[in-house]
Amino acid sequence: MKYLVLIAYPSDGWSSMTADEQAESHKDHVRFHQAVGEHILGGEALASSSAATTLRHVGGQPVLTDGPFAETAEMIGGFYLIDAPDLDTVVEWCRILPHGYSLEIRPCVEIDMPA
């Protein structure tokens, strides 16, 4: 089964960290990659939420706005897409990631698309 792990942290989280704290965070991600290995199907760090563009439909017309959809104290800073046998396995792997994160783990839904 596929799971999406959304990584959230305070919007000033990275910039408020010391170089040593940033290095330790990076080491946690390296340990995560080593533990999960080929089960990681994808993942990326994301630019700041201030770089986001939101697309909404207003009156049937697409409207683009700068910035994130919602005002929040945390921002989504990255994600992993993982193939795992069950949620317990994903949770165990995610314990390796930096403890300052809020991690939202969601199972992916398989959708059959007509040919």
Tell me about this structure:
The chain has one domain: Dimeric alpha+beta barrel (Alpha-Beta Plaits). Helices cover 23% and strands 37% of the residues. The chain has 2 helices and 6 strands. A 4-stranded antiparallel sheet has the order 2-5-1-6, with helices on one face. A two-stranded antiparallel ribbon has the order 3-4. The chain starts with a strand and ends in an 8-residue tail after the last strand. The relative contact order is 0.33. The model has no long low-confidence stretch (mean pLDDT 88).
Helix content: 10-25%
CATH architecture: 2-Layer Sandwich
Q: Which strand order do you get reading across the main beta sheet?
A: 2-5-1-6
Taken as a percent bin, the fraction of beta residues is 35-45%
Poorly predicted tracts of residues: none
Through-space gap between termini: 23 Å
Order of helices and strands: EHEEEEHE
Total discrete domains: 1
Give a quick summary of the entry:
By secondary structure, the protein is of the alpha+beta class. The chain has a single domain, classed as Alpha-Beta Plaits. The protein has two helices and six strands.
